Amino acid sequence: MTEAGPPTGPITRGSVARVGAATALSALCGYAVLYLAARDLEPAGFSVFGVFWGAFGLATGAAFGLLQEATREVRSARYIEVAVGPRTLPVRVAALVGVAAAVVIVVSAPLWSGHVFVSARWLSVALLSVGLAGFCLHATLLGMLAGLNHWTQYGALMVADAVLRVLVAAATFVVGWGLVGYLWATVAGAVAWLIMLVASPVTREAGRLLTPGGTATFLRGASHSIAAAGASAILVMGFPVLLKATSDDLGATGGVVILAVTLTRAPLLVPLTAMQGNLIAYFVDQRAGRLRALAGPAGLVIGVGLLGVVAAGTVGPWLLRAGFGADYRADGALLAWLTAAAVAIALLTLTGAATVAVALHRAYSLGWVSATLASTLLLLLPLSLETRTVVALLCGPFVGIAVHLGALARTRPS
Length: 414
Description:
Layout: E1 2-3, H1 13-40, H2 43-76, E2 87-88, H3 90-116, H4 121-147, H5 151-175, H6 179-187, H7 192-199, H8 201-207, E3 209-212, H9 215-235, H10 239-245, H11 251-274, H12 276-285, H13 290-314, H14 316-324, H15 332-357, H16 361-379, H17 385-410
Parallel strand pairs: 1-3
Antiparallel strand pairs: 2-3
Helix pairs in contact: 1-5, 1-11, 2-4, 2-6, 2-9, 2-10, 2-11, 2-12, 3-4, 4-5, 4-6, 5-6, 5-7, 7-8, 9-16, 11-15, 12-15, 13-15, 15-16, 15-17, 16-17
Subcellular location: Cell membrane
Membrane topology: Multi-pass membrane protein
Keywords: Cell membrane, Membrane, Transmembrane, Transmembrane helix
């Protein structure tokens, strides 16, 4: 085992470009899986698949808390003097967390799985538990690579995950495996970390790193990050599950809404989620003024988002019908408002990264939990499915943004 050393330098345009390219390829693979599933399954069947896709995204989104804590621990080591003391092997901790999470899912499944998975119930539970265990290692390894500025390997691990998914989805489409095949495709990337450990010496070296502090210290910080990441995952990847839980029957309309939500948010949220390592490392480096450091990324998100709102409102309905079939119909206003809601969640993601970089774990988790709770309550309004979806996703995130900015404003620059 080796101790975590300082990263080789600050975040550069080249590193962002490499992760950006990997993100673009990963996003294309994600779109390809959704496209194949939507073309192969009718809207009601796609709704079932979308709920499992969202459930896995919710679970793995929570596991991204391990990425955030691993990145912060490794990156912060360059700014502090580390005395002799206990050390932690984050990858080992991730394995323990993954096994514990898988056991919790299996043991608790009789209480909730019947309400969430209407088809292939126990296969869905098994795939969810095993896939999450693997993703805990995946996320932690990403965090170690990000903290050490190993962005080429970071991007390769992302791409390996996405490519494995689309390969299984393509095989399912060709052989006609149906819904079950797309369930397997959803979790196929959970073994990407193992492939990278075998193929990449740099990744193996990162996986052997020790970080300052004991296991309890790492878990304490990670627990807040996991809570916040879990809340964020409910709004991002897990939203179909939340929508199902607050609705009697999604049906064909639910399938259209889930697809519209997924497509309108992906151009912003997929890159931001993939670049969590870059963002946290960037905000750790900006120790003198993180509120000022937020201005640039926030301006970029708003600018891109406004362009997306216009595009979604004008050509979005046609693209939806042309790409996924005549059964998938949504008007331009709905797609434009959903894109605006994606901008709000993207800004919450930015403020969250800045908050966790300062080790304000409680404020970070409180912001995301508050946003998710607000969105959940708004989903209970007596409105149409489309309207309450927009209201919940657009208004809820601003509660969390206020919590994050308040905490950052009270923190003295270092």
